[in-house]
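Hi R.,

Here's the chain you asked about this morning:
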Amino acid sequence: YSSIKMPSRMPPSLDRTVHPPTKRWLFRPRPEAHAIDLLMASLGINTTLATLLVQKGITNFDQAKAYFRPSLDALHDPFLMHDMDKAVDRLLHAIMRQEPILVYGDYDVDGVTAVSMMYSFLRSLQAKVAFYIPDRHKEGYGISLQAVEWAANAGFKLIVSLDCGVRAINEIQRANALGIDVIVSDHHEPASVLPHAYAMLNPKQKDCRYPTQELSGCGVGFKLLQALVLKKRLPMAQLYDYLDLVAVSIACDIVPIVDENRILAYHGLKKLNSTPRLGLWSLMQKKENEGMPLCISGLVFGLGPRINAAGRVDHARSAVQLLLAKDLKEAAFLADKLDAKNNLRKGIDRKTTEEALAMIQAKPEYLRAKTTVLFKDSWHKGVVGIVASRCLEQYYRPTVILTEARGKATGSARSVAGYNIFQALEACADLLDQYGGHAYAAGLTLSLSQVEAFQQLFEQVVTDSISVELLVPPQEVDLPLQFEDIDSKFCNVLKQMAPFGAGNRKAIFVTDNVFARSCTILKGQHLKLHVHQQDSKHVLEAIGFGLAHYEPLVRSRKPFRMVYTVEEKYYLAQKSLQLNVKDMQSM
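And here is the predicted structure, written out as tokens:
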């Protein structure tokens, strides 16, 4: 990317109304003309669309076909994953011998969907199976010793852990001592030393040659079941019935929607929009924009928070029960309960975010810092991850939000684009009892007495390792575009590039010499515009969420530059074109 502006990093105002940080625009390099021309001729498309595809690495007809028509036949062989043969053989042994199997998973969307899928599928094979989700507040993240002891007392001989387990060295050692085998199915970053599990399924471990590293936790569990289906020579359609759950996990765990994830998400969304399981269908009735097909962002902002709410404010067991529901009345009842829990979560989230932002604004040293590390013992553990994301939106820098739970400081970390917060936590490992996660999101636990020392060390580690430009939020731009080129045909081709999300975002365009024919402020925060280019009568509707601070610019009657995506707007069962404005600049 080439950067168009690099404003100096200024601390937000001490006023409670803080505008989003200024962005730096990054233009994607234009591909070679020869590659664009070849693809235009091969597909019969215009220059803009061909350029977008070449930017995505698509340079010929076959690649374009695989991109626009993802095929389940192109899924990778699950036995390429390290230890898959051992895991499948052990699972089949347990099924045939009717050994009790405990399906164990995390309490977030990824873990809940993985547990629901694995439990339901094994039940369909007449396996003797139960599921266990740890209590976020009493047991914390991952495999707990409490759960291992419970499993042993209950007679389980096999635990299949989903979306957790790759760092559970002591817990798996205890399980082994109690005569329980553990199959770990996880996608989090492994440590240098792995637990002595019976089988370790994680595409990120060093000796694994599986082609797709960035599967969701549910996705790794899906590969285990795919291998099981192949070994037992069952119809693969029997497994594809669970793709709606896999799609929800891919969306809500923000894994890149490329390669295998794109295939799984594409077909999972098709199932969600046609024949979803009753629990998901009941949750879908709660969403806004009726008549609008469910997409990745609809899962992230609609279904995901409701599923997550169970584990945030109560126990995630109820979310699994919803996804396993076979009766519409039961599903509707459980969906209503989750919706109520999500409303409760919103209130807690809002109050905590206000308190966290006030803490930052109250101290000049917090405003000058290159990190945000906040601790308050009364904050609800279930919302610290959300609050970390909210703080990062306003103060764009690596952020850690901590609260007290079970006599320890525990919380969540969120990072800025281009900075690996997991590695930053590794550099602070001497102060931490436990940590784990990914490059941009992680969890941690430490002694209460170490909070201040961690705050100082984390600030130092980040200061020494982050470049100034990474502290300014990036705004990627794919191509310049003229408004007159935007019509329903153009929009229809863009739509076929879905599912959109991490690794396959919507195309982002920039247009110069823009004027606003009308400007309305919505809810004091958002801009609703009708825009056109200089000397053009082609007028388009546009919406800029959270961009009300640009009102003086658009009312100045001077031309401005606008970055946006082209989208369809659904209103009263009618659809129309609308530009979703991401940022603006004066000319």
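One quick note: DSSP finds 21 helices and 19 strands in the chain.

Cheers,
M.
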